[in-house]
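Why do we bother with holo predictions? Because pocket geometry can differ from the apo form. Keep that in mind while you read this record for magnesium ion.
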Amino acid sequence: HADTAMYRAKEKGRNNFQFFTAELNALITQRLELENKLRRALERQQFELHYQPRIDMQSRKIVAAEALIRWQVSEHEIVPPSRFIPIAEEIGLIAPIGKWVLRTACEQNKAWQDAGIPPFVMSVNVSARQFRQENFVQIVADVLRETALDACYLEIELTESAVMHDAEQFIAMLGELNDLGVQIALDDFGTGYSSLSYLKRLPVDRLKVDRSFVQDIATDADDATIVRTIVALGHNLGLKVVAEGVENEQQLEFLRDNQCDELQGYYFAKPMSASDFAHAVFGSTE
Ligand code: C2E
Ligand code: MG
Ligand code: MG
Ligand code: MG
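The structure, written out:
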């Protein structure tokens, strides 16, 4: 990043402007190239959704799938969402990309239901900028109508920071989504700065405990306490609690012993293409 370049340039001394300029120029060029490719990615159909199952602790059945975007820039290059979603937000592309994600995820869920698969919830990530579009609720309503998916099979995942900011307006929007029948989850829970009195007023259905707390749950006493506290908090507010990033048996045991409701992670399955998901989960090819 540019900051790193600047820092390194400083480290090398004041009279190393040449190094600084060259490295910074290369970074700027790289970034502009990525932006240009991103602007064309939708029309070139380079995006794909992968789906990761979410499992109910009690029944051990799939109760949901999280849709996760992938960008296939070229045959051998996949750019992860952590790299391009922030850029898409910055350059004003998150609205069209986000709409594509929402529509594709709803269409896929409806197609699986029509194929006779037991219905489950499709969970879609929505970034802060996307949620703050004036017509976001209308877009969700339109996509549900156009895809004929019943609203109860759609869940929107928002991070704490996306909704904490500018409270009243977002509480109202969450209320409208809730009125449509859409479910709402707070993603990466515990990493933001939710005020508890505010949380109480949010019409959300689930808290998704951030993966960073789940990772060392079996060995780190602080993480264990944090997760127990989030489960208790969620249950006291009448919400379900989901653990993200479950990778092993020890984590699973801890989460079971501490009444976590739902689980997601590599221990069960990695995110998969639609056809791999259908094959792995229902034993069909599509
Ligand atoms: P997230 O919503 O918290 O998604 C969970 C991330 O953790 C995903 O990374 C998933 O592949 C990964 N993961 C799941 N289980 C495990 C595990 O057991 N171990 C480890 N190490 N990782 C696990 P991914 O797909 O790279 O997505 C990263 C983030 O990008 C997402 O975090 C979400 O914030 C964002 N994102 C992904 N798809 C979309 C999208 O369609 N729209 C928007 N706005 N954001 C998206
Ligand atoms: Mg998510
Ligand atoms: Mg509700
Ligand atoms: Mg998360």
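Strands lie at 47-56, 62-74, 77-79, 121-125, 154-159, 183-189, 206-209, 240-243, 262-263.
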